[in-house]
Fold Glutamate--tRNA ligase.
Amino acid sequence: MTVTVRFAPSPTGRIHIGNVRPALFNWLYAQKQGGSFILRFDDTDRERSTQEYADSILEDLTWLGIKPNRIERQSDRFALYDAAAEKLKEAGLLYACYETAEELERRRNRARALGKPPVYDRAGLKYTDEQLEKFKEEGRVPHWRFKLPNHKDGDPFSFERTEVHWDDVIRGRQTVDLASLSDPVLIRGDGTYLYTLPSIVDDADMGVTHVIRGEDHVANTGVQIAIFEALGANVPMFGHHNLLTTASGEGLSKRTGALSISSLREAGYEPMAVCSLAVLTGTSHAVEPAADLDALADMIDFTGISKSAAKFDPEEVGHLSARIVHGLPYDQVAARLDALGIQASEAFWNAVKENCNTVKDAAQWWPVVTGPVTPDIADEDREFISQARDLLPEEPWDETTWGVWTKAVKDATGRKGKGLFMPLRRALTGLTHGPDLKSLLPLIGRQKTLDRLA
């Protein structure tokens, strides 16, 4: 069996770090198993779905290193969903219901008041001709529910406990009692499909073998298995991982734009920092930056994923990104530095990278090397700076020059420690902090150094 997985986002907003968690779990699992990854846009909501958001999702996934083997759009596949709906109707498993949202809510409240579960009572199967005629006169249109196999044969109103079991690849053995659930609505009153039926039809038609998704779908899985079986389709294996939340326990939402991938990319964070945080948070593995997606795949152990929601600190993205940046060799950043207008060398990158949280941060150190720089020389340090200028060694310079020069200045002036080094740093860079001057000084050069010490 060739492993086939899918990621099915709705192109109704920009995806965030919580969305890419299932995308990465699926992608990494497929890579590890030598399988295939399908990007399937759930764009059946024609009013809210846009090509702009679909393009941004693909751009975000590409930036993270996820390269779909196949891209599909559900808006191109309505004929398949219509055929499946007709098949269920002909089998008596998809039936029309005319209740309004307000009527349904009143029934649920009444059931709760009586101490009963607020499960739909299948009133749609008991309409009289008079009722149907009245609905027609009122202009009501039906929504369509799938009749769950949770009753005694021949009597859809004799509910009985009906357990659906599956071996979840993440959570282990799972059980859902269909009698505790309402018959799901598959088609809205306006004729549009909810997520469920298109997803099942596509999974079956595309040969999806594993559905790896968030734990909020666990109860849905029992229902979906019943629909797979009603359509005579192969049931895939399911895996449900925990969800990411903010530190306060709030869920992430496209509507708020919280931690959108595009915003993290624009901030200059490294893609592997985002991938590592999205995947390793809430697992038994330490949250650390993986070198690449192959290394991240080796870190994943589905049995080590917690069954509790995974809270994380958004600032951790920056911390992980900085750790990656500090270890990046010059050949991996040269083109990015060039795009920033930095005509740098390997020596420059090695000198400044420990002071960069993102590659973009190198831009703040480039003027320190090339100028212009406004020296920051206190009045009480001017004579000291003048003495230091006179003791400046001749070129050529290398990383030993700073030590040779400061030793000569120390011997001549008697200054040491902060009193020796800080005035020189402020004169040369205009700052009180920054990269190690033993690496920076040769890049600044003797003439610029003389000019700044003048």
About this structure: The first helix runs from residue 17 to 33. The CA atoms of residues 123 and 352 lie 71 Å apart. The chain has a mean pLDDT of 94.
